[in-house]
Design a protein that fits this description.
stress response, three-stranded mixed sheet, rod-shaped, alpha+beta
C-alpha cells in the first residue's frame, strides 16, 4: 500500500478560497469600496451644437443668435414696407374711385349748367328758375367743379378745343377770341374742354413803329435832293 506524500512545513495547504464581494458590510452596513477599483476618468463636457472646438462655444452661440436676429429684423422691415405700400395703394385707389364717381355725376349735370348759362346771357334767368340755377351752381362748386374759358386768354390746346380759327392784327399770340362753350374741370381733371374760337397774329400786318412808304423819311430825302 502506497502512502501519499506528506507536505513540508513551509508549504501552504491548497484549498478553496472564499472572497466576500458584497458591497454592503453585513456588520457595519457601510458601503464597501471594491478592492482595486479605479475612479472613472472625468468626462469632458459636450460642447453645444454649433460651438467651435477648443472652448469657443459661447462666442459661436452668440454669433448664431446675432445672425438669426438680423434675419428676423430684415423680415419685419420687409413686411412693414409691403404693408405701407399696400395701404398707400388702397388709399390711392379709394380717392380715384371717389373722383371717378363724382366726375360721372357732374358730367350728367353739364348740359343743365349750359342751359342756365345761356338763360343768364339772354337775361332769362329770373324768378324761381334763377334761385334753382344759382343753388345748383353753388352745390357743384362745393363739389369742386370749376368753370373756365374767357375771351382774350392765351390758347392752350390741353384745356381748349379750337372750333374756329382766324388771324388778327390785335393779338400778339394765339388767343381766345370767343367762347362757344365753357369748359369744366375738377382739380387737374378736365371734364370738358372749353370750345373756343382762336386767332393768331396776322403775318401780313405791319410791325408797330415801321415807316410807311412815302412817309416822313422819304420826304426828308426828297427835300435834300431839291
Amino acid at each position: 500500500m502506497t502512502t501519499p506524500p506528506t507536505r513540508g512545513e513551509g508549504e501552504e495547504r491548497e484549498g478553496p478560497v472564499i472572497r466576500d464581494k458584497r458591497r454592503i458590510d453585513p456588520e457595519t452596513g457601510a458601503v464597501r469600496d471594491p478592492a482595486g477599483a479605479q475612479p472613472a476618468p472625468p468626462q469632458a463636457p459636450v460642447p453645444p451644437a454649433g460651438a467651435a472646438p477648443g472652448g469657443g462655444g459661447a462666442p459661436a452661440a452668440d454669433g448664431a443668435l446675432q445672425t438669426q436676429l438680423a434675419e428676423r429684423t430684415a423680415d419685419l422691415q420687409r413686411l412693414k414696407a409691403e404693408y405701407d405700400n399696400y395701404r398707400k395703394r388702397v388709399e390711392r385707389d379709394r380717392v380715384a374711385v371717389r373722383e371717378q364717381a363724382l366726375a360721372n355725376v357732374l358730367n350728367e349735370l353739364l348740359p343743365v349748367l349750359d342751359d342756365i348759362g345761356r338763360a343768364r346771357d339772354h337775361d332769362e334767368l329770373v324768378g324761381g328758375f334763377k334761385s334753382v340755377g344759382e343753388a345748383l351752381e353753388a352745390v357743384t362748386g362745393k363739389l369742386g367743379l370749376v368753370r373756365y374759358g374767357e375771351k382774350g386768354e392765351p390758347f392752350d390746346p390741353t384745356v381748349h378745343e379750337a372750333l374756329m380759327h382766324g388771324y388778327s392784327a390785335e393779338v400778339t399770340e394765339t388767343s381766345v377770341t370767343d367762347v362757344l362753350q365753357p369748359g369744366y374741370r375738377i382739380g387737374e381733371r378736365i371734364l370738358r374742354p372749353a370750345r373756343v374760337a382762336v386767332a393768331e397774329p396776322d403775318p401780313n400786318a405791319a410791325a408797330p413803329g415801321a415807316a410807311e412808304p412815302g412817309g416822313a423819311g422819304d420826304g426828308g430825302q426828297g427835300g435834300g435832293k431839291s
